Amino acid sequence: xxxxxxxxxxxxxxxxxxxxxxxxxxxxxxxxxxxxxxxxxxxxxxxxxxxxxxxxxxxxxxxxxxxxxxxxxxxxxxxxxxxxxxxxxxxxxxxxxxxxxxxxxxxxxxxxxxxxxxxxxxxxxxxxxxxxxxxxxxxxxxxxxxxxxxxxxxxxxxxxxxxxxxxxxxxxxxxxxxxxxxxxxxxxxxxxxxxxxxxxxxxxxxxxxxxxxxxxxxxxxxxxxxxxxxxxxxxxxxxxxxxxxxxxxxxxxxxxxxxxxxxxxxxxxxxxxxxxxxxxxxxxxxxxxxxxxxxxxxxxxxxxxxxxxxxxxxxxxxxxxxxxxxxxxxxxxxxxxxxxxxxxxxxxxxxxxxxxxxxxxxxx
Length: 364
Ligand code: XIL
Fold this sequence. Notes:
By secondary structure, this protein is of the alpha/beta class. It has helices spanning 3-40, 52-58, 69-74, 76-85, 97-100, 110-122, 139-142, 148-165, 190-195, 198-210, 228-242, 264-272, 294-311, 331-334, 352-362, and strands spanning 62-67, 88-91, 125-132, 172-177, 215-220, 248-251, 254-256, 277-288, 316-321, 338-339. Helix 12 (264-272) links the parallel strand 7 and strand 8. The chain binds (3S,4R)-3-hydroxy-2-oxopiperidin-4-yl beta-D-xylopyranoside.
């Protein structure tokens, strides 16, 4: 090869290499940008007003949603619709024990603080969720082999610490969550098993002491209808009320297309008759993945029925949905094969349920 041909070959190689580097860099930048965009979620387009928040307010109903930390941080559209449509939040996971104290004595308040600060900035009320529950406990606690006294001190200490931190800023708390088993017996959780039924009053006593002005709730899953579970809950609430320890009973209302139980209204009324307020705390309506579009109309009817049921009970003045967009809902993870459980779709567009919710709030 002559020297000039060799030079030409080398130059061509250099140009080729430089070109490849440029192409690669552009590809990386484009993919970063795409990732960033997808993390930022969809743009919130105007929803067909009036907002749910406004309609609920006109009806003296406090409308809330679960708040998830990741989209709170990353997704402007999520934040926009949340603030536009709701007047209250319940941190979905950020105030659970495993989130707050993953290692004994090492506290990670980031997510919970973020939720409370966001709420303060936008004039939203906060429902503290949840202090004493059997799930989402840190491993050091469940595997700790504590004796009765030790466990009781940990429980009451936790209540005091968490409520103390947010005193005056979180005005309502789910103090005890899901204490009753399906058959109406005490759930054999860490608390129920080790401390017996007395753990409930002990948790509420600690909560009253920690923040005497806060509204204290007992929250339950699957107790919407009459039956053994809600009978037991009723007895617990009667006793707590007698001791001046409870202000509100929360019914989660995780529903599906089976609809609102027929006995729900009568059930809520018998609790209200004890002199406590009623809250719907975690409403959603799961839809099978393989169901056609008519399933979304059926879902809309369930949401409307739920709103009507709450409105039919004078003491039911708070309703929280467990997420408001299918993009951020626990249902697909928790019940595979089921999803689309909320009011807005993945792209923050209104579903039939959204309009049905509006109509039900209007009373039509
Ligand atoms: C769920 C959250 O939505 C999920 O993200 C988490 O993985 C599990 O817990 N009852 C409750 C809620 O009181 O705290 C639960 O939330 C749903 C059932």
